[in-house]
Amino acid sequence: MMIPGIFLALQMSADHDQSLAIRLQRRDPEAMGDLYDRFGRMAYSVILAIVRDAAIAEDLLQETFLRVWNRVHAFEAGRGAIGPWLLAIARNRAIDHLRSIGARMDRNSYELDVREHPSLFVDMEREVLNTDHARLIGKAISKLSADQRKVIEMAYYEGLSQTEMAERMGEPLGTVKTWVRAALKNLREALGQAVAA
Amino acid sequence: MTCDQLRQDYTSYALGIAEDPERSEIAGHLARNCPECISGMASAMATVTAISGAVPIKDPPKDLRKRIMATVRKAPRRSRAAVFLPWAITAAMSIALVAIGVSGRRQIGDTARLQRALSILNDPATRDVSFGETEKPSKGRVFVSPKGVVLIAAGLPRIDTNRTFELWLIPAKGNPVPSGLFQSLPDATAVFVRLGPIDPGLTGKGAAVAVTVEPEGGSKQPTTTPFIVTKL
After folding, report:
1. Whole-angstrom Cα distance, residue A162 to residue B230?
2. What SS3 state is found at B231?
3. Among residues B190, B77, B87, which one has the least CA distance to residue B140?
4. Distance (Å, rounded) from C-alpha A186 to C-alpha A148?
5. What angle do CA B35, B24, B130 make, to 5 degrees?
6. 138-197 of A, contacting B, C-beta below 8 A
7. CA–CA gap between residue A131 and residue A120 (Å, rounded)
8. CA A113/CA A92 separation, integer angstroms
9. How many C-beta neighbours within 10 Å does residue B13 have?
10. Closest CA to A126 of A16, A5, A3
11. pTM
12. Contacts 24+ apart (CB under 8 A), B22-26
């Protein structure tokens, strides 16, 4: 049976990511170079979009890779999705930076640890980062109502709590919660996720 | 709250924007290793990852790769123990911080204190041990370093209001050393942090940790049988 090219490519990239994780766990510095080549631009873009300062983004990207290097032993190389894990760490570093400069102490490092815990990236769909998904999400965001899009942008790029969003927008917290839930439901549906997460 | 009630907020939690009571409820379910919430959170993380994947791509400076490689080559090798806290403990610590998340000066003081606690957990010199992994109702983990002690416990016994839990560090030879008093939360959990130098004899080979129930104000030596006792 012929294997369609795209599936073959996905399988190859999954195998590549798995061997990358194993090499990182064996403390192969060249594996870090390969990880950078594969996900560095994406992680940099995520951080830059949040902090909007190239010098800070460079520092935070270094911090991100160092964190991966120091924590990769806990990663389940055979089943974990290393790209999504790295992007979660990158976003957390950027949001943590924003919170620290804004003296917003209402979140904590443990909660960041929860959100980047390797167990959350086990068996994650490999194609979650492919261009089709990016297009689907982009399209779904563009279809959100103006208020829903605003709260998603404030959530993703600024890490504002829903209370902070409500204060900034001058709207009741309940209204903001409704917009957030509806927006995220639309995004999940666009991704075709069966689980109402 | 039930998993069903929390489901619609998993992605908010994954984004870091969930509000109480949902935030602490989800953290609580995660700390109890709730399979439905862990699975839901993993799915929510996939949504957040997909949003990250849709961020417009920008090129980093060309020399950044070289700098990152240099940073990694210089990085000291860390012990496995310092790498990642077990899932449930991380979530439990998150709840502990949420629980003290009050406004004003106290929050800053408590946050600083717990940040110091985190430094104990991440200290390569820290020794840690789990307890109650078999049939005992009280389960948890103790971290002991020259900088202090962190104890995280669940399933603690109910005690009268005029009683207290007391932590003991026990050297290989010698009497137990009283190392702090604590109370449990209504859900029978506790996170106890004692900051300050610890005598090396209390963390060395053959040392042990114990917890007893004592009269309010604590005791100089244990007056009841320890319900937690574990060797370091």
Report:
1. 43
2. strand
3. B190
4. 10
5. 60
6. 138, 141, 152, 155-156, 159-163, 165, 173, 177, 180-181, 184-185, 187-188, 191, 193, 195-197
7. 22
8. 9
9. 26
10. A16
11. 0.67
12. B23/B98, B24/B95, B24/B98, B24/B99, B25/B1
The CA–CA distances, whole Å, from B89 to A58, B14, B86 equal 32, 18, 5
- Residue length of chain A: 197
**Do you know the residue count of chain B?**
232
Q: Please work out, in degrees rounded to the nearest 5, the angle formed at the alpha carbon of residue B50 by the alpha carbons of B46 and B55.
A: 150
Strand, coil or helix: what is B57?
coil
B27 touching A (Cβ < 8 Å): yes
**Contact yes or no for A197 and B10 at CB 8 A:** yes
Q: How deeply is B76 buried, as exposed, middle or buried, from its count of CB atoms within 10 A (0-12, 13-18, 19+)?
A: exposed
Residue found by looking up tokens 């979530």 in the block:
B91
Residue type, A108: N
Which amino acid appears at position A193 of this protein?
Answer: Q
Query: What is the amino acid identity at position A54?
Result: A
State the amino acid at position A47 in one-letter form. Answer: I
- Residue B118 forms contact with A (CB below 8 Å): yes
Q: How many CB atoms lie within 10 A of CB B175?
A: 11
CB atoms within 10 A of CB A102: 12
Q: How far apart are the C-alpha atoms of B91 and B188, rounded to whole Å?
A: 16
Cα gap B123→B115, rounded to integer Å: 12
Among A25, A26, A28, A120, the residue to mutate for chain B (most B Cβ within 10 A) = A120
- Quick one: DSSP state of residue A122? B
A40 touches chain B (CB under 8 A): yes
How far apart, in whole angstroms, are the C-alpha atoms of residue A130 and residue B112?
Answer: 41
Chain B window 85-104: which residues touch A at a Cβ cutoff of 8 Å? 85, 87, 90-91, 93-94, 96-98, 101
Backbone angles phi, psi at A144, to 5 degrees: -65, 155
Tens place of pLDDT per residue across chain B (232 aa): 889 999 989 999 999 888 888 888 888 788 777 889 888 988 899 899 999 988 999 999 999 999 999 988 877 655 443 445 556 666 666 666 544 433 333 344 455 666 667 777 766 677 777 776 555 677 777 888 888 888 888 788 888 888 889 999 988 888 899 988 888 877 777 778 887 788 888 877 788 888 999 998 889 899 998 888 888 7
